[in-house]
Specification:
The two termini are about 20 Å apart. By secondary structure, the protein is mainly alpha-helical. The longest helix has 19 residues. The chain has one domain: TIM Barrel, CATH 3.20.20.370. The protein is globular. The protein is built from 14 helices and five strands. About 35% of the residues lie in helices and about 5% in strands. The structure holds zinc ion. The site of zinc ion (ZN) has 7 residues, from strand 2.
């Protein structure tokens, strides 16, 4: 979904023009990310959603006037005209954003690529061309591969959720860190899940507020989706992620792109329900076997500071490997984990693994 990236890129550019400080001062958080306090939730290892969520009460009192409606486009609930969002929107020099019209859906509900000049690909539209490097100046390219060879960047989308403690327990038992792409609506709905994600040492990133197709949205809607997701994560965990990933639908085209066959295991790793959680658990040994290193994206990209706040840091790849030699296992040559195509062997020599869209906020210097 390149145009998503392009929309994202517009956002990135806008945010850069705005300046990170301007974003962060639009809202605040009373949470110290280094001292997260999560009450003991008794059903922590249950796979029974009802049981796990039974006693789950959000620890925050949210002022409904400050938030979009859950699972609706983030301009909902009057956010598009709120003083907070209006100030943010107006602080951005939109003349510097790429001029890309929102894409449309086909009658079948998919992306409508009809009439788009794929060869020219002026929008760097991923869905049309798999473009990941925007043509506009000062727009950050997507992160699509780990820098380190034979490394799998472990990521999960769509959380958090009250029913995922068993899965987080599994990761904890395996001393495994992952990148968690959280949906803003879920962060507000299940804040303990987000808090646990950070407390457990996972790398948090955004995954939009309402899980819409970002390239079909206007600039205002895209900004709201990114902003309120960022605000939600900050409000609940105390950190503001600098990275985000567009939604699953954006990656469907990957299925026909052999290059990313092995990435499917990552892209399809969703925190939606216990079935997908179990799927992720079942596939984990195969990933571990076939890759020398399985790490979160911040680590595999050597991004020690993936948040605006600097109080939470992540090890560099070398630091992690030297600290935990036991993660260095496997041959690095391999057939696929779980039904992926035979291209996985080739992939392992190139790095495989993840697909994060353009940067939210910070300057291109990070990459
Ligand atoms: Zn998703």
């Amino acid at each position: 979904m390149v145009w998503k990236y392009q929309a994202a890129a517009a956002m990135t550019l806008g945010m850069a023009a705005l300046g990170v400080q301007g974003v962060t001062t639009n809202y605040s958080s009373t949470v110290d990310p280094t001292k997260l306090n999560i009450p003991n939730i008794p059903q922590t290892t249950s796979h029974d959603v009802a049981a796990q969520c039974q006693y789950y009460q959000p620890p925050f009192t949210l002022n409904p006037k400050e938030w979009p409606t859950s699972w609706e486009i983030a301009t909902s609930n009057g956010m598009n005209t709120s003083a907070e969002f209006t100030a943010l929107y107006n602080s951005i020099d939109w003349t510097k954003a790429p001029n890309i019209q929102p894409k449309t859906l086909s009658a079948e509900g998919g992306l409508n690529l009809q009439g788009y000049d794929v060869q020219g690909d002026k929008d760097c539209w991923w869905s049309a061309s798999q473009c990941t490097k925007p043509k506009a100046a000062d727009v950050n390219p997507d992160i699509v591969q780990c820098l380190e060879p034979n490394t799998w960047g472990l990521t999960y989308d769509d959380g958090p959720n009250c029913s995922h403690n068993a899965f987080y327990d599994f990761l904890e038992q395996n001393q495994q860190k992952a990148s968690m792409f959280y949906i803003g609506s879920n962060v507000i709905g299940w804040p303990y899940g987000a808090m646990r994600g950070l407390k457990d040492g996972h790398h948090l990133a955004g995954h939009t507020w309402s899980h819409k197709l970002m390239t079909t949205l206007t600039n205002q809607e895209v900004l709201a989706e990114l902003y309120f997701t960022s605000k939600a994560i900050k409000y609940v965990t105390g950190v503001t992620p600098l990275h985000w990933r567009p939604n699953y639908e954006d990656f469907i085209a990957m299925g026909s792109n052999g290059t990313f066959n092995t990435v499917g295991n990552i892209v399809l790793s969703h925190e939606i329900n216990n079935m997908t959680m179990d799927f992720a658990v079942q596939n984990y040994p195969a990933i571990k076997k076939n890759y020398k290193h399985v790490v979160d994206v911040a680590t595999c990209m050597n991004i020690s500071n993936p948040y605006i706040e600097k109080s939470i840091t992540y090890p560099t790849f070398d630091q992690l490997v030297s600290k935990n030699g036991s993660t260095v296992t496997g041959s690095g040559v391999s057939p696929a984990a779980s039904g992926s195509s035979s291209s996985m062997g080739a992939q392992t020599t190139v790095n495989a693994a993840l697909f994060i869209a353009a940067l939210f906020g910070v300057g291109a210097s990070l990459f």
